[in-house]
Recover the amino acids of this structure.
C-alpha cells in the first residue's frame, strides 16, 4: 500500500490534474494538485510530498525555472517533468538540472504509474514490478546444456543518478541525445522512445528478427538496431558495450531514434556513466555460463568466424586482417586484468572514404559518418591520428562486447573471433540464446 506516500501534481490544465489525481488516488497515493509554480511554492511551505509531477509549460514561472528552485531548496526530492511539446533537447536540459525523469504528453497512465513506482518504491519494502526483458530465460531447470544460468558473486548494478549525452546520429546526421536513468533489480537494459514504446536491449528485439524463421536465422547488419511497434533505436552497440563492461545490469534509456555518436567510440558513454555513479543493488547478478563450445562460421583464418568456449571468467581474443594501413592485428582483452575504459572504449569506428562516399550518395548514412570514423583512403588514415597502433582490432572487440550484451546476461566464457562483424556477432548471440531457450 502507498497510503503514506504523497504526490504533488503541477499543471495548468484542470483535465490533466483531475485525471492524474483520480488514477493516483485509486493506487492509494495521497494527491495534492496545483495550477502554477507559485501555488506549488505555497504548498511546499505547508509540507513536503514524496514526489512531484511538474509540467514544463506553466504560466508565470515555468517548470524548468521551478525545477531549478526545487533542486536548490529540496535537492533530494524526486521531480518528474511533463511536457507535450518538448523534444529530447529539453528533456536532456531537465535531466541536467536535476529532474528524476521525463514524461511526454498525452500521458500514458500505465506508463505514469511505472515511472512513479521506479522513483518512489513502496514504503513497506516491497519491490516495484520489474520491466521484463523479452524472452527472459527461466531459472527453473537444473539440467546443464551448452549454456546455463548461474548466480554470480557480483550484485546487480544500476546508475546512482542520471546520465545525459547529446551528439549527432551516425546514420541520420541529425542532433540527438540520450538520458540514462536508474532502474530496479531484474529490469535489464531497456530503451524507451519519446512516445513511450519500450524496447528491451535483447537479441529478440533486433530489427527484422520476427520476419526470420527457423534456427538458421542470420544477420548482415552494419550496426545494431532494435525495433518494436514501428519504432527503431539505432546504433546501440557502443553504449551497450560501455554498460556491459562497467557492470550496469539495470538501466532505462530514453532516446529518440538513434544513439548519439560523438567520435565513433564508447569513451563518452563511459564518461557520463562514471559521472552519474554506479550503485550496487540487493540481488545477485545472473550470469550465462558457457559449458560447451558454440560457434558461427568456419574456423579458418581465411574466413570470418566467432565462437565461445568454456572459460573461468570472461575474455575476448580477436584477429583482423585488412588492406593497408591496417594489416593483421590481434588483441586479447580480459576485463579482470585490463581497463575497458582505457584500452577498448577509446577505439573508434573505421571505414574507407570510398565506402562512406557511396553510402552518402545512396542516402544510407548522414554526415555523422565523417566526424565519427577513422577514414582510410589510398592506404592511409586521412582525417585523424590513431589512439592506438592497433585501434582497428580493439574497435572490433568494442562492437562484439556491445552485441553480446543483447543476451541480457554477462557471459562466463572465452570469445574467439576472426574478422568479425555485427552480423556475425548477432548470429552468435542468437545461437547462444537458442541453446539457453531449449533448456
Amino acid at each position: 500500500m502507498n497510503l503514506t506516500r504523497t504526490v504533488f501534481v503541477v499543471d495548468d490544465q484542470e483535465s490533466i490534474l483531475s485525471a492524474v489525481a483520480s488514477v493516483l488516488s485509486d493506487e492509494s497515493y495521497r494527491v495534492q494538485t496545483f495550477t502554477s509554480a507559485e501555488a506549488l511554492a505555497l504548498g511546499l511551505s505547508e509540507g513536503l510530498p514524496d514526489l512531484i509531477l511538474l509540467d514544463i509549460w506553466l504560466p508565470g514561472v515555468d517548470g524548468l525555472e521551478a525545477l531549478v528552485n526545487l533542486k536548490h531548496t529540496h535537492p533530494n526530492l524526486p521531480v518528474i517533468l511533463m511536457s507535450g511539446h518538448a523534444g529530447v533537447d529539453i528533456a536532456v536540459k531537465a535531466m541536467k538540472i536535476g529532474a528524476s525523469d521525463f514524461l511526454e504528453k498525452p500521458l500514458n497512465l500505465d506508463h505514469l504509474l511505472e515511472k512513479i513506482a521506479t522513483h518512489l518504491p513502496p514504503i513497506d519494502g516491497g519491490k516495484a514490478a520489474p520491466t521484463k526483458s523479452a524472452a527472459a530465460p527461466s531459472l527453473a531447470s537444473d539440467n546443464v546444456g551448452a549454456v546455463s544460468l548461474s548466480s554470480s558473486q557480483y550484485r546487480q548494478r544500476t546508475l546512482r543518478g542520471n546520465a545525459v549525452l547529446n551528439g549527432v546520429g551516425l546514420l541520420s546526421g541529425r542532433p540527438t541525445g540520450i538520458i540514462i536513468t536508474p532502474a530496479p533489480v531484474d529490469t535489464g537494459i531497456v530503451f524507451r522512445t519519446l512516445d513511450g514504446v519500450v524496447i528491451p536491449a535483447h537479441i529478440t528485439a533486433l530489427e527484422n528478427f520476427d520476419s526470420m524463421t527457423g534456427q538458421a536465422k542470420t544477420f548482415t547488419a552494419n550496426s545494431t538496431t532494435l525495433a518494436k511497434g514501428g519504432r527503431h533505436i539505432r546504433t546501440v552497440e557502443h553504449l551497450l558495450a560501455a554498460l556491459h563492461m562497467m557492470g550496469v545490469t539495470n538501466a532505462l534509456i530514453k532516446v529518440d531514434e538513434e544513439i548519439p555518436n560523438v567520435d565513433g567510440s564508447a569513451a563518452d558513454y563511459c564518461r557520463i556513466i562514471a559521472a552519474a555513479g554506479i550503485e550496487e543493488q540487493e540481488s545477485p547478478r545472473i550470469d550465462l555460463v558457457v559449458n560447451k563450445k558454440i560457434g558461427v562460421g568456419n574456423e579458418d583464418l581465411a574466413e570470418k568466424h566467432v565462437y565461445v568456449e568454456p572459460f573461468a571468467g570472461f575474455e575476448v581474443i580477436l584477429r583482423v586482417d585488412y588492406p593497408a594501413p591496417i594489416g593483421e592485428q590481434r588483441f586479447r582483452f580480459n576485463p579482470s586484468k585490463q581497463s575497458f575504459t582505457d584500452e577498448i572504449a577509446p577505439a573508434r569506428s573505421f571505414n574507407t572514404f570510398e565506402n562512406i562516399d557511396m553510402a552518402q550518395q545512396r542516402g544510407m548514412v548522414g554526415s555523422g559518418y565523417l566526424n565519427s570514423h577513422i577514414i582510410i583512403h589510398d592506404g592511409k588514415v586521412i582525417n585523424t591520428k590513431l589512439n592506438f597502433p592497433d585501434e582497428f582490432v580493439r574497435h572490433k572487440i568494442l562492437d562484439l562486447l556491445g552485441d553480446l550484451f543483447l543476451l541480457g546476461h554477462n557471459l562466463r566464457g572465452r570469445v574467439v573471433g576472426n574478422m568479425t562483424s555485427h552480423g556475425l556477432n548477432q548470429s552468435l548471440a542468437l545461437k547462444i540464446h537458442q541453446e539457453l531457450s531449449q533448456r
The mean pLDDT is 86.
